[in-house]
Fold this protein.
Amino acid sequence: FLSDCQVATPQCRIQKCTTDFVSLTSHLTPSVDGFDTEFCKALRAYSACTQRTAKSCRGNLVFHSAVLGISDLMSQRNCSRDGPTSSTDPEVHHEPCNYHSRTQHAHTHSHAHTHSHAHVRPAYLFCGLFGDPHLRTFKDSFQTCKVEGAWPLIDNDYLSVQVTNVPVVIGSSATATNKITIIFKPYEGCTDQRVYQAVTDDLPAAFVDGTVSSGDPIRALWISERSPGRHVELHAGYIGVTVIVRQLGRYLTLAVRIPEELAQAYDATQDLQLCLNGCPSGERIDRGGHLPLPLSPPALGLQLQQPRRPSQSYAAPQGFGVEGARERCREQLEVQDIYFHSCVFDLLTTGDANFTAAAYSAQKDMESLHPHRDKWRIYPRGSATAASHSDSHPIKRLALLLLCALSSALI
C-alpha cells in the first residue's frame, strides 16, 4: 500500500521519463503548425522510456498510470506507435533563435560540472483581454475595467503591446478594444524590430512594413493567418512568445503567452502594464472580483457607431434580460466560470450578441496558451461554484494523507 503513495522507488525511473516528456512538450503550442508531429514524437520517446524501465517499475502505481496515459494520448492525437522520437539529449540541438532551445542550452552549460542531464522547463505567463473589456493578468487576476483610450498591456525589454479602447454604449463606462499595436523589439542575430497593428475591420496578416516574417530562413518571428480578417497569430520563437488577435463583431480580442523571465525584464519607467499589475483602482468596474450586472438592459440604438468599411455589416443590437443573456451565453459556454459571467455582463451592457463569441474565443485561446491547466477556471467571488471548487482541493489532499497514513499503519 505504501508504495502507491510514493512518487517512485529508487530503482524505477518513471519520474525521469515524465520529466523528459514535460521538457520536450512544455514549449509547444497547440495552435502552431506541426504541433501534432512534435507531440507524437515526444509521446513515442516517453513510451520508449517507460519500456526501458518497465522491469524495475513493476507494481508502481505512477508507472502504470503513465503507461495508460500515454496510450490514451496517442489515441487522441492519432499517433502511430512506430516513427521518429524526440531526443532527450539537450546538447543535440542548439538553436540560438529558439527560446526553449537557448534556455535549455544555457541551463545545461551552467550545470555541466554536475554531469546532470536534467531538462529545465521555462516558466510561462498568460494574459488576455476581451469584451467590455475583461482583463486576465499574469497573476490570473480577472478584472473588468474602463481604461478608455490607449493603455499598455505589456512593456518590457523584448515586447510592447498597447490597446486602444472606445466607449460602446451611451451612458455606460464600459469600453471595448478597437486597436492593438504590438512591437517586437530587435534581438541581435535573430530579428530586427517589427511592428504589428490591427484596427477594427483591418486585421492584416503582415507587419506594418508588409513583411510576414523576420529572421529568414530560420523564421525567428512570423505571422499565421487562421481566418482572413478574423483570426491572426504571431509567433516569436526567439523569445518564446505567442500572440493571438481576433475580431468578433466590431471589436478585437487579445491573448498572449510569454516566458516569465522576459515579462519581468523592465525598468521603473515601464511599470504601467495592465497584464503585470492590473488596472488602476479608479478604472475598475468589478468590485474585487465581483462583477455587478447592469441594472437594466441598454435602450436599443444607444450603441455607439464605429466607422466601418462599406462591405462590413453587423447584427443589430438586441434587448437582453438577465435570463435571456444567460441562455444565450450557455449556448457556447457550458461552465459557468468568469468567462460565462463576463458574457452575461457584456450582453446586458451592450445588447451585442457578438460578445458571446468573444467570450467563447477568449476562453479557448486561454486554454490554448495558458501553461497551467489547474488555473484555467476562475469563478466570481462569493459564488457557490467558487466556494465548492476552493474547498475541493484541501479535501482531496486530506483524503490522500489519510490513505497514506492508513497504509503505513497496516504494514
